[in-house]
Amino acid sequence: MVKLGGAALEAGSARDSVLQDLVLLRFVGMRPVLVHGGGREITALSQQLGLETQFVEGLRVTDDRTMEVAKMVLTGKITPDLVSAIHRLGGRAMGLSGEDGPTLLVRRQRGSRGQDLGRVGEVQEVNPEPVLALSGAGMIPVVASVGLGYDGLSYNVNADTVAAALARELRATKLLILTDVPGVRDGSGEFQSRLTVDEAERLCETGAASEGMIPKLQAAASAARAGVAVHIIDGRQPHSILLELLTEQGVGTMIEGEADDA
Question: N or C: which end of the chain has fewer CB within 10 A?
């Protein structure tokens, strides 16, 4: 399971390097799944339309108009761009969102202190069948982070959360969260090559982690507790996926956990 976001998502050599790695993994018999966000492009289009951008604990406050923008960017632009790029690089891919199937059923999420986030979704149910069908047909599923609410509305779901939920349901061996920083730093700013689940959660609780790193660490902890090996790595580094998977030292931060007894 690979989550692509930040500068690594932007068109160019960094993005193509990530997609080349995925095509290679598929070619050698692995079954990668790609989940993407699109925060920068959502913010840019929102600003062009005169919409206010606000974040709470790393999550975008999403009113009805912002939801329309998010859905337009995620499912109307970024997913097709990634699919076409994978085809150009010799692979096969097909896009879907959490609404398709539906793959992700969500309920309205609030901040930790009860803040109203608007149409931000918290994943409640995962239906893996659409993803498994595409993967079983030899394609790389490209999943946009939009979920379907029990009320029938579209919801903006943090892409790290989506990737972790899918990784747990699919019993993925690894979850790679690609971002635009080298990995995780502690409260003193020191880079951490390995963290336990408890240490990752403590960084969020103490405020050592902030903004977009909070949902990444929360998602990493939830997946690691389910037995998934989680790596937070810099997707701007050429072939960062292969370097993390195939070298002893790796290039990012690994979140270590044990499978739940259940």
Answer: C
Q: Has 216 been annotated as catalytic?
A: yes
Determine the pLDDT at residue 248: 66
pLDDT of residue 190: 86
- Active-site annotation holder among 37, 160, 183, 257: 160
Segment (H or E) for 143: strand 140-144
227 assigned to active site: no
pTM of the model: 0.91
5, 37, 38, 39: which is the annotated catalytic residue? Answer: 39
- In degrees to the nearest 10, what's the CA dihedral of 214, 220, 223, 228? 180
Please indicate whether residue 81 is annotated as part of the active site: no
The amino acid at 182: P
Which of 21, 147, 216, 252 is an active site residue? 216
Identify the H or E element spanning 125: strand 116-126
* Active-site choice (3, 58, 91, 257): 3
As a whole number of angstroms, the distance between CA 170 and CA 149 comes to 21
The fold adopted by the segment(s) 2-256 is Carbamate kinase (3.40.1160)
Which residues sit opposite 90 in a β-bridge?
A: none
- Known catalytic membership, residue 91: no
Q: What is the pLDDT of residue 76?
A: 95
Beta-strand relationship, 34-36 and 116-126: unpaired
Give domain limits for the chain. Answer: 2-256
- 91: three-class secondary structure by DSSP: coil
Query: Chunked in runs of 10, what are the mean pLDDT values of the chain (262 residues)?
Result: 82 84 94 94 94 89 96 96 96 97 95 91 96 97 97 95 96 92 84 90 84 87 93 88 78 74 41
